TrEMBL record:
Pathway: Carbohydrate degradation; pentose phosphate pathway; D-ribulose 5-phosphate from D-glucose 6-phosphate (oxidative stage): step 3/3. NCBIfam families: gnd, PRK09287.1. SMART domains: 6PGD. This is 6-phosphogluconate dehydrogenase, decarboxylating. Keywords: Gluconate utilization, NADP, Oxidoreductase, Pentose shunt. Catalyzes the oxidative decarboxylation of 6-phosphogluconate to ribulose 5-phosphate and CO(2), with concomitant reduction of NADP to NADPH. Its EC number is 1.1.1.44. The keyword Translocase does not apply. It comes from the Bacteria. Belongs to the 6-phosphogluconate dehydrogenase family.
């Protein structure tokens, strides 16, 4: 029998995607650089479906029906290039090479262009959902040609998560579009996690609640508008008791957050595109700061607030924090979607944000009820310039803003760091401001560098003769 698809790279993600494909009735040819992984997969899970075990790339390619579909699930970076170099010469025009790893979208663009010359469709597909998602239904974000999606889409939609019967997989756009949106997805994930962590910290320090009590708070929040995978697992983590100490696990975990790089890429690219993704940036910086043992040790003795009024935080703080979290989350997602819009415009991808919100409702780490609201906002006749101004979100922010301000003010008063909450509020207030102090910055720039400024009342560029008689001249 000929296999419908081949999977090369059988570490946790590749093996689980291969099993998912086989469980959906596809014959899957499987290959790994070190054959022991292939053997282990067949021994442990061969009974789950039809697998063809292959020892070499040649065998894998020979096992496939045409046009061939080969899914690469190896470590991103040089390993992916090595695997492409191995497989490309074995393929024919019309065949498809799919990279399901966490590649940088610029690498995907480069690889797609090179393989296109050979007539091979290169598909950079973002896959979210971790190990479990790969096995039970991930959210899949494939880029590449529309033609390749015709041949590949049905199979990917088959194994993707489903929400209301709709698969969490859609063609995102040409070349690097899929990996770009996966990158921003991860950036949003960083922001969302940071905001949840700040909410936990505020309630722990501000109200003195225990992790177990806070697990109940997050579990309750998960029943409402915040309902999401990340809130759900937060409750689970907070409830976990450490076997060694008998105390909360969260108290014995070292407070240094690590990162693999997609959040950092999101911010780097946002800087290049000129998109203010301050919420994502603060989340990346907060992780970085947490790891700076040297800076933290050197600053540990610095004073906190000298006088914290006793009983200044009451029961109503819980609801204030919930609303502040929701409002900040809206900002983080709005910024992420802005970045996707900017990337799409820059590279001519024509990404449909509503379709993206749809496929993020299930399978992926940022899955949330809230994404249905984003989908609705982008499917409305009046496309929002910013999600903040879309009717549902504008109303949610209106309802939340007093709480949001109280929480950020209280955090400053108590000396609890809330970089995510406060940058989100600053973004909101900056966007809605009638006038920004950017006018003064333009004045300063003109003073020291004759950079000129524009006026609100006349066309043209102007310069004040700062070191002369301080009259204004047209530049
Ligand atoms: P890893 O990222 O740990 O990669 C291990 C695989 O890469 C093994 O199959 C290994 O083969 C293969 N490999 C390496 Br390393 N160098 C190779 C080379 N030069 N030639 C051929 N094969 C090579 O696996 P993973 O955690 O399953 O992730 C796979 C991809 O999926 C990554 O890009 C990852 O970023 C992405 N991803 C992961 C997750 C997650 O939750 N883990 C989620 C979403 C996406 P070997 O067995 O011979 O060493």
């Amino acid at each position: 029998t000929q296999a419908q698809i081949g999977v090369t790279g059988l570490a946790v993600m590749g093996a689980n995607l291969a099993r998912n494909l086989a469980r959906h009735g596809h014959t899957v040819a499987v290959h790994n650089r070190s054959h022991h992984r292939t053997k282990a997969l067949i021994e442990e899970h061969g009974h789950e479906g039809d697998f063809v075990a292959c020892e070499t790339p040649e065998e894998l390619v020979a096992a496939l029906e045409r046009p061939r579909r080969v899914l690469i699930m190896v470590k991103a970076g040089a390993p992916t290039d090595a695997v492409i170099e191995e497989f490309a010469p074995l393929l024919e025009p019309g065949d498809m090479l799919v990279d399901g790893g966490n590649a940088h979208f610029a690498d995907t663009r480069r690889r797609e262009a090179a393989l296109r010359e050979q007539g091979i469709h290169f598909v950079g597909a973002g896959v979210s959902g971790g190990e479990e998602g790969a096995l039970l239904g991930p959210s899949i974000m494939p880029g590449g040609s529309a033609e390749s999606y015709e041949a590949l889409g049905p199979m990917l939609e088959d194994i993707a998560a489903k929400v209301d019967g709709v698969p969490c997989c859609t063609h995102i756009g040409p070349d690097g579009a899929g990996h770009f949106v996966k990158m921003v997805h991860n950036g949003i994930e960083y922001a969302d996690m940071q905001l949840i962590a700040e909410a936990y910290d505020l309630l722990r320090q501000g109200l003195g609640r225990s992790p177990a009590e806070l697990a109940d708070v997050f579990a309750a929040w998960n029943e409402g508008e915040l309902s999401s995978y990340l809130i759900e697992i937060t409750a689970e983590v907070l409830r976990q008791v450490d076997a060694a100490t008998g105390g909360p696990l969260v108290d014995v975990i070292a407070d240094r957050a690590e990162q693999k790089g997609t959040g950092r890429w999101t911010v780097q690219i946002a800087l290049d595109l000129g998109v203010p993704v301050s919420g994502i940036a603060e989340a990346v910086f907060a992780r970085s700061l947490s790891g700076h043992a040297d800076l933290r040790a050197a600053a540990r003795g610095l004073p906190g607030p000298s006088r914290v009024p006793a009983g200044s935080v009451g029961e109503e703080f819980v609801e204030d924090v919930r609303r502040a979290l929701y409002a900040s989350k809206i900002v983080a997602y709005a910024q992420g979607f802005d970045q996707i819009g900017a990337g799409s415009a820059e590279y001519g991808w024509d990404v449909d944000p509503g379709a993206l919100a749809t496929i993020w409702r299930g399978g992926c780490i940022i899955r949330a009820v809230f994404l249905d609201r984003i989908r609705e906002a982008y499917e409305a006749e009046d496309k929002p310039v910013t999600l903040l101004a879309a009717p549902y979100f504008a109303e949610a922010l209106t309802l939340a803003q007093d709480s949001w301000r109280r929480v950020v003010a209280k955090a400053a008063e108590l000396g609890i760091p809330v970089p995510g909450f406060s940058t989100a509020l600053a973004y909101y207030d900056s966007l809605r401001a009638e006038r920004l102090p950017a006018a003064l910055i333009q004045g300063q720039r003109d003073f020291f560098g004759a950079h000129t400024y524009q006026r609100v009342d006349r066309e043209g560029s102007f310069h004040t003769l700062w070191s002369g008689d301080r009259t204004e001249v047209e530049a």
